[in-house]
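Structure first, sequence second, as always.
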C-alpha cells in the first residue's frame, strides 16, 4: 500500500521527521484500512499510497514538528472535523502521551475512527457532533490545550468553531493551503479571546505549499459564542 520504508525514510528525514520502522508499519496498516473502508464510505479522494504518505501522513506529522513548543507532555488535544483522522490519528501514533479527541459531524466517520483505533491499538476518543453545539457543553468548552483543524472552513468561520474549545493559555493550530490569509480572521480571533501568534509556512515532499496559523488563547470566549451554524455562515465575525 504505502511505499517501502526505505523509500519513505529519506522523505521523513528531509522533512525533519523521525519515524521508526515500527511506527511506519502502523501507518501502513492505517493506509490499508483507509483504502479498504473508503470503498464503502467516502472518506478521502486520495487513495494511492504515495499520495497518502505525502499529503496525509507527512502533512499531519509536520504539524507536530513545526509546532512542537505548543505540544506539552500529556496535553489535551481536540481535532475538529477529523474526517479520516488527519491530523489527529498520526499525532496519536507519534505522541501516545497526548489525550486526543477526534470530532466529526458525520457518524459514519466516527464509526471508521473507532474501528481504526482498535486496529492500531490507540487510546484516542472519537466524538460525533457539531462543533457549534458541543462547544456549549462544559465537558468540552475551554478544556483543550491544543485544538487542530485541517481545512474544514474559511478562517473567520473556523475561528468561531475552534476557539471556544481552547483553554486560556492553549493554542489553536489551523492548517491551511496556499492563498488563505489570516487577516480576514483577526477580528474574529480577538472577539473570541485569541491572539494571532505566528504562521509556519512549509512544503510537502511533492512541492505543495501549506501554512499553519498559530493562535494563542489569551482570554475567555464570551458565552454567546459560538452562535448557531446559520449565523456563523451568514454573518462571519
Amino acid at each position: 500500500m504505502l511505499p517501502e520504508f526505505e523509500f519513505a525514510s529519506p522523505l521523513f528525514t528531509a522533512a525533519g521527521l523521525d519515524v521508526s520502522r515500527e511506527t511506519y508499519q502502523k501507518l501502513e496498516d492505517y493506509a490499508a484500512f483507509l483504502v479498504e473502508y473508503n470503498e464503502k464510505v467516502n472518506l478521502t479522494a486520495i487513495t494511492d499510497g504515495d499520495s497518502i504518505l505525502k499529503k496525509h501522513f507527512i502533512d499531519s506529522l509536520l504539524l507536530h514538528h513545526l509546532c512542537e513548543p505548543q505540544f506539552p507532555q500529556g496535553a489535551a488535544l481536540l481535532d475538529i472535523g477529523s474526517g479520516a483522522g488527519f491530523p489527529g490519528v498520526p499525532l496519536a501514533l507519534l505522541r501516545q502521551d497526548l489525550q486526543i479527541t477526534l470530532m466529526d459531524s458525520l457518524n459514519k466517520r466516527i464509526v471508521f475512527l473507532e474501528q481504526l483505533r482498535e486496529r492500531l491499538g490507540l487510546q484516542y476518543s472519537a466524538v460525533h457532533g457539531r462543533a457549534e453545539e458541543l462547544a456549549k457543553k462544559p465537558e468540552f468548552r475551554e478544556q483543550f490545550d491544543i485544538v487542530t483543524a485541517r481545512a474544514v472552513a474559511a478562517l473567520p468561520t473556523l475561528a468561531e468553531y475552534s476557539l471556544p474549545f481552547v483553554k486560556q493559555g492553549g493554542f489553536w493550530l489551523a492548517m491551511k493551503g496556499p492563498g488563505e490569509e489570516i487577516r480576514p480572521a483577526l477580528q474574529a480571533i480577538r472577539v473570541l479571546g485569541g491572539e494571532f501568534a505566528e504562521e509556519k509556512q512549509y512544503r510537502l515532499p511533492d512541492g505543495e505549499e501549506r501554512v499553519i496559523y498559530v493562535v494563542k488563547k489569551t482570554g475567555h470566549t464570551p458565552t454567546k459564542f459560538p452562535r448557531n451554524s446559520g449565523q456563523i455562515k451568514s454573518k462571519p465575525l
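Margin note: Strands lie at 76-80, 99-104, 125-128, 144-150, 166-176, 194-203, 209-217.
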